Amino acid sequence: MNSLHFLATRTATASSLIALVCLTLLATQAQGASWTARGNEPGWLLEISDEAITFTTQEGEILTVEPVPQPIRAEDIEVYATSADGDTFTLVAANKVCSDAMSGMPHPKTVVVAINGRAFVGCGGEPVSLLIGEWRIEEIAGQPVIAGSETSLSFTLDGSINGNASCNRFFGGFTLTGEGLTLSSGGTTMMACAAELGEQESRFLGALEEVSRFESLSDGRLRLLDVNGKAALTARQW
């Protein structure tokens, strides 16, 4: 039997978007992996695992959905819906990049939670998932890279970075926090480079040190920004 308890006073608001999605999607049966979501104004936290969905407000009010209902899925959207003791709960998660309203940090999911018609909108999933992989650098500080230079940057789950700095290989690390992203170059190989590639390599390695946050663009590109919000590097996944 579902267990669903919410301690807050609810205000009934329209949730036509959620209703439309629920009516039109076709059901499938697979369960998703554990993940979290957050929202602001008002602040809230959602945690979902195979066993339960827990929703907590900034005032400490808690909702628990247990067991987790089978999701309805279609394309890049999944919906979890249930009711108990006169309460209704709907969670809609879309695989669409969402930027946190306060920090600007991008997340892989856009999330809407509705409890008795009251809607909470926020972002879900881990930001690091938008970075992991190999990226081909297209621009350094707004300037296109030299054709054929194959300048690249790879992020790995152990917190390291590596790639082709334009001529030499490089390696280093990255740190991702709620406040932003920092990159550090630990070293490079020491091959002799053509003058143009050497100059581009210097600009690329300098740009790595300037990165303070990132954006995941709608066309799939990655934009690494400096502290002033200017593009230090723009890349596309290989």
Describe this structure in words.
With 238 residues, the protein is mainly β. The chain folds into 2 domains: 123 residues, no CATH class; 110 residues, Beta Barrel (Lipocalin). It is 11% helix and 47% strand. The chain is built from 2 helices and 21 strands. The strands form 3 sheets. The chain has a 10-stranded antiparallel β-sheet, covered by helices on one side. Strands 13, 14, 15, 16, 17, 18, 19, 20 and 21 form a 9-stranded antiparallel β-sheet that branches. Strands 9-10 form a two-stranded antiparallel sheet. The chain is elongated and about 75 Å long. The N and C termini lie far apart (47 Å). About 12% of the residues have low confidence.
Instruction: Output the number of helix runs.
Output: 2
Which sequence of strands runs across the widest sheet?
1-5-4-3-2-12-11-8-7-6
What would the principal axes of the Cα set say about the shape? elongated
The SS-based structural class is mainly beta
Q: What's the multimeric state?
A: single chain
Rg to the nearest angstrom?
22 Å
**Integer average pLDDT:** 88
N- to C-terminal distance: 47 Å
What is the H/E string? EHEEEEEEEEEEEEEEEEEHEEE
* Number of spatially distinct domains: 2
Low-confidence stretches: 5-32
The helicity comes to 10-25%
The major β-sheet equals:
10 strands, antiparallel
Q: Could you give the count of β-strands?
A: 21
Beta-strand percent range: over 45%
